[in-house]
From TrEMBL:
Keyword Repeat: yes
Protein name in UniProt: Radial spoke head 1 homolog
Function recorded in the entry: Functions as part of axonemal radial spoke complexes that play an important part in the motility of sperm and cilia.
Pfam families associated with the record: MORN
Organism phylogeny: Eukaryota, Metazoa, Chordata, Craniata, Vertebrata
Organism annotation: Manacus vitellinus
Amino acid sequence: AFEQEYDGDRNAEGERHGYGKARLPNGDTYEGEYERGLRSGRGTYRFKSGALYTGNYLQNKKHGKGIFFYPDGSKYSGDWVDDQRQGHGEYVYANGDTYTGEWFNHKRHGHGVYVYKDSGSKYVGRWVNGIQEGPAEIIHLNHRFIGRFFNGKPLGRGKYVFDFGCEQHGEYIKLEQEKGEGEEEEEEEVPLPVEPTWKAIEITKLTPWTPKDEKPPPPREASLEAAAAAETGEEE
């Protein structure tokens, strides 16, 4: 069905093999390397939507190093496994925020640094399935918070360290708040800075306390629909 628009090398069996250019029935285009009829090796895939991927393929899937430019102006540059963002990579969001760190199954997972462009604040710590969770530090302009996060919010004991040489110890108290389910989008969601309730306990001089590090739990099965939605148009 797609034979109408392919210009490139073929092997003895007539399969696309080597270097070629293809226009897909849905208007997407691919230029790059093929092996036995499938995109494999380096190539550039342009989506009709305006998105673009340039990087490595293995048997029609993004696999290896590659850069994906999303239609909203955001960009991911890093490792891919089986069409998913996985390994190490940097995501620059449409609003100018950046995340640099580990990915699993298309989501921020493992250790990473998220920089909020507007405030210049940084979250340095653990992520589980796209959500801030585990030991972390939030670094602001002239002070920082060290503690633990659960489900995207700081919770429990922690401390604020001020550049002028003192610390405020305390804990974050949880306030219940329901968040509605949004539509699954192709682009990554930007985490919002949250403001739970801080209860101060004491102020001391600087001390070396740090939250105990622990391995993140194994990844929960993240929904594959988001990934599927991202690449609806790719050549079968």
